[in-house]
Design a protein that fits this description.
- By secondary structure, the chain is an alpha+beta fold.
- It contains 6 helices and 5 strands; from the N terminus they run αβαββαααββα.
- The chain is elongated.
- The relative contact order is 0.13.
- The structure holds iron/sulfur cluster.
- Iron/sulfur cluster binds next to helix 6.
- The site of iron/sulfur cluster has 12 residues, from helix 6.
Length: 160
């Protein structure tokens, strides 16, 4: 990288450096001392503490009001082994197969609802394969099923 960048005028972005701050600080120092025409833009929740560093605090982006709600709360082993809520199931099913086992991936279907104009009833109903008329009208309450809390009419009705 040093050999490539040394003769060039370039801007390099190091993103999310707070996770590896010491290693990023070392890399940044080597790049800046080895490449005289390099500009480095670093995003990090903490400064790297290297010479010449200038900090530009960026406030968090405002978020619109949402209709967000918890849909499933369970022990993590139970959640991954036997997810109950349809959205939890679909999210876990959409995880890329990094072990290349040949498992097919099924991305979550449909559009993410507009948080400024959320759907009536269960906000997941436009994308849920188990939605019924009740789901479109009545927001499910978070109820206890075994060791988990789940907000889903299909689970409550024993349909899944
Ligand atoms: S309440 Fe209905 S729409 Fe919502 S996740 Fe359960 S089955 Fe799907």
């Amino acid at each position: 990288m040093l050999r490539y960048l040394r003769p060039r005028e370039a801007l390099v972005v190091l993103d999310n450096c707070e996770h590896l701050a010491p290693a990023c600080a070392l890399l940044a120092h080597r790049l800046l001392t080895g490449c005289p025409r390099l500009l480095l833009l670093v995003t990090s929740r903490e400064p790297l503490g290297i010479g010449g560093e200038a900090q530009f605090p960026v406030p968090p982006l405002p978020t619109p009001p949402t209709d967000a709600a918890m849909v499933e709360l369970a022990d993590k082993a139970q959640l991954f082994a036997r997810p109950r809520h349809p959205y939890t199931r679909m999210l876990l099913d959409a995880i890329p197969d990094i072990h290349m086992s040949g498992r097919s991936r099924t991305p979550v279907q449909g559009e993410v609802p507009n948080p400024l104009n959320p759907p009536t009833g269960c906000s997941f109903h436009p994308r849920c394969p188990h939605a019924n008329a009740r789901c479109k009208q009545e927001r499910p309450a978070l109820l206890r099923f075994g060791g988990a809390l789940i907000a889903c009419h299909a689970v409550e009705e024993g349909r899944i």
